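Dear Dr. H.,

I hope your travels went smoothly. While you were away I took the liberty of generating a structure for the chain from your last submission, since the lab meeting agenda had it listed for discussion. I wanted you to have the full record in hand beforehand rather than looking at slides cold. The sequence, exactly as received, is reproduced here:
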Amino acid sequence: MGRLFVISAPSGAGKTTLIKKVLYRFEDLYYSVSHTTRAPRQNEQEGCDYFFISTDEFERKIAQNHWLEWAKVHDNYYGTSKSVIKSSLEKGQSLLLDIDVQGAKKIMALDLDMVSIFIMPPSFEILRQRLENRGTDAEEVIARRLENAKWEIAQKDLYQYLIVNDNLDQAAQVLCSILKKEMA
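The corresponding predicted structure, in token form, is as follows:
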């Protein structure tokens, strides 16, 4: 049976960058691609970063109990396919899920054998700078993401591990150590 790794962070903490930096180091760890109703960002690819679907299709899948977890974040739906996770774990594949705190809390409530990791920004001001430097969101979207970040950071104690992403290389080393330990 594979292991399930759930990684969460506030938007702009560098979670996706960190995951991409370490994932290739583990040939027996697979990235679980989530579904979303938001528009793709520059350089995001269908089936690699997300499966981009319509709101109607997402809501239809909610009604069909398709999702292991799902949440509406920043006015968009995000979800993880129940059947994909179950199938992969049964094959012995370990999976890494990049999901928001709402989704992580839903998975934690299922009492699955999982490892939870929270990625923290070094400070709230640096988080703000990272979101602004992306250049992808309007001011009101950034303000909403920062407001959500306060709540998300307050949930960090629910997680087994906490990594402060103030230096990408150091944070990657810590994440690799956790993954190696938990997969052993």
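Two observations you may find useful: The chain has one domain: 4-183. The chain has a mean pLDDT of 92.

With kind regards,
E. W.
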